[in-house]
TrEMBL record:
<dbReference type="InterPro" id="IPR013783">
    <property type="entry name" value="Ig-like_fold"/>
</dbReference>
<dbReference type="GO" id="GO:0005975">
    <property type="term" value="P:carbohydrate metabolic process"/>
</dbReference>
<dbReference type="InterPro" id="IPR032109">
    <property type="entry name" value="Big_3_5"/>
</dbReference>
<dbReference type="Pfam" id="PF16640">
    <property type="entry name" value="Big_3_5"/>
</dbReference>
<protein>
    <submittedName>
        <fullName>Bacterial Ig-like domain (Group 1)</fullName>
    </submittedName>
</protein>
<feature type="domain" description="Bacterial Ig-like">
    <location>
        <begin position="196"/>
        <end position="280"/>
    </location>
</feature>
Amino acid sequence: MSKRAFFATAAAMSIAASALITPVAHAAGVEASHRDGDSIFNRSVSSNEVVVGQTLTYTQSFERKARTDAIYSWTNKVNSCLEYVPGSAKLNIADQAQNIEAAQVKATKGSTTISAPEGKWTYSTDQPHTFQLSYRVTQDCANEQTLESGFSYEYDGFWGSKTSKDYRASKFNGGPAAQVVAKIKTASTTTLSPLPEYVAVGVETPLIATVQAADGAAVAGQSITFQDGSETLCSAKINAEGFATCKWKPASLGDKSVKARFGGTDAIAASESETYKVKVLSAVPKQPQDLTFTEEKLNDQVHTIVSGKATPGAVVEALAPGGNRCVATADEDGNFSCNLGYLPAGKERGVAVTEKIDGVQGEVATLVGDVAEGNPHALESFLQVLRKIGFGIQDFFKRLFDPNTWVAVGSA
């Protein structure tokens, strides 16, 4: 299972347990995972920021990639300034809530242990076990203190002997960690407007993002940075409507992962948008234009020449349904021509033409015309069949270049 899958499972288990615990309202929960052999441990904390007097909830799931394992007891280890909330211990096995008696829970400063009522619990691939515990943030927790956590558990060792293992906070990004603050910041949401799949190097592309803060908190005048990973592409100020716009001029070819980030203020929390994948090309391929047929006699046969306009430097391909094909490179003015060879005479001869730039194909253009001289060929009969069944010639050529959309002739 991939790391991304670990997080997805942790989120799912948190959702399953959410019916038991009311989440903290103002700050976002965080998750982290660790794999040890066939066991996967997913941990989450209900808030990454807390104030004194608030409740902090820890959730942990035990999963297996193969076989089974046992849990005799689970000990959650936290800062000593946190006070266990009696009655908050919960357990879900798969999606079924289990009863936890007070006698199964032992709470001391800095640790809380839940023990199995009848020897042990057994967890497996289809029977994950998820525990929850809640703590009150006491006055002993200092402002700006980082609250870290870890755990240990007892399980079946070699030859069935009971053994235990400790997992430190460092394996879970601090447990995950939470920060004690004087005041919870107002939440914000950053949204990046959709971007095209392809953009051209050296050509300005507008990046537009919006920021909204909860409770109508003002964000106008603050900055948004637009990033490719950790690299800043450009930045802009947020206007009175919550929008920020900047012009990105890509300097290099390749794949980019573009997101917008609001850094936050003393009162408003930072936030990031979803990431858009964008490929920077030397130019964005387009549909060839001004297509024409001309005829030239070579070796006692009339050859069909396809000409037109494309993006300068683009590789242009022309394809006829009989299999005739030619390739040319557009010159610095975008002009191209290529020889399709001999095409049987007939009405409405169809040729599909596309251009490629950096391996990316543009939209298909279709050229339909009459080819003079000669007798009808099997190709003409084929086109007549298409017309009789109402199969559009232009649509046919689009399908010809995109096999993912191909359907059998005559299908519904």
